[in-house]
Automatic annotation (TrEMBL):
This is Lanthionine synthetase. SUPFAM superfamilies: LanC-like (SSF158745). GO terms for biological process: peptide modification. The keyword Zinc applies. One of its GO terms (molecular function) is metal ion binding. Zn(2+) binds at C283, C332, H333. It comes from the Bacteria. Keywords: Metal-binding, Zinc. Pfam families: LANC_like (PF05147).
Amino acid sequence: MTQTLSGLAARVADLLTHPDLAPRQSHSAPWWRQSLAHGIPGVALLHIELAAAEVRPWQRVHDWLSAATKAPITSGPDSHPFYGAPALAHPLACVAEQFPGAYKRTLDGFDQSIRAEAHRRVAAAHRRIDSGDLPALAEFDALQELTGYGAYLLRRDPDAPVVAHILTYLVRLTAPISHGEDEAPGWWTLSGPSGRPDDRFPDGHANNSLAHGIAGVLSLLSLAARRRRRVRGQLHAIRSICAWLDRWHDASGRGSAWPYWVTRAQLRSGHLKSAGVSRPSWCYGTAGLARAQQLAALALGDSDRQLTAERELLDALTDRRHLAATTDIALCHGFAGLAHVAARTADDALSATAGELRAVLPALLSAVLPPGTDPENTVTELMEADDGGPGLLDGTAGVALATLAPSTGTAPHCAWDACLLIS
């Protein structure tokens, strides 16, 4: 199985040796050159990882990155960590980590615009807090806003002033805020989980997810603390978020270990109503939340919390009801993502749980590519699917990348998953 899955990654890369070989429907999409989630930057990460592992040539990396820059790249307010200059900067930075100085002129230009845009957004967020208004969900999420900017800039230049400014803002975000007659967490938003008004959430919600909610903030604050990049109140903010997640932990055995979100009615009553079993994915669900809490525990030196987080992940990955709720193989919310999060968590786990986490990997990988399945058919079907494609979050490049470390037993050779806030 491990050889088959590592071969799957190579097969995906060989089908995508050049951007011209990608499915035509991808080429026609306006986001193709600039989307880390679905386009060229995400596919480039696969080629970078395989080239860094010395199993495929670096020329493919150059071909893909060159294709992305054949026309102007979006920067400024219309860009974000998964689109435009920040999105393309991520794979360029992965190359530069292997070859210092590579793409230096382009990367320096991107970094300058990214820092300027992050400063602008932090200033706007502080003005919003000063006015007493509630935030938009997009103000702080990991894919489009300041948590994502922080993840990239922490990796590129952790001592830069802009990193401290982002961390300081995120600390302020965790302070309680008045919402009518209630005291709500500072990240309470009046929109639904999509970031738009939603009749199901007339009074808004508090989002717990890693991709869009407070777990992403927790991961960034914790990753920064582990790298000794700290601002005033940072450890207190980490503890505050952990206390929130403790409060809303679902111990009923019927639903997710942590709910995707908390509604106004739940906030007022102080009680969850279990909505049934939910998929334990990276983006929303126990996998992402457990990894975020493990990182927090490591930052705080809290072995009890670390053990709890690792046990919660194990429970989710061995409970047939939770696994049955996972219906695809993608990185974002499928089995490939579960396998990668489990492998990353195992690398940092206590000795009591590390082996158990690694022991669940074969079953997760078998769900990606069941025994007897033709890898080429799997790759082709996903690449041509309307909800798949060649990209990172929902497509073949993401499946290939996410199954490499779990199937080979080795950590990634480049920091391709830093954009996911799990490393």
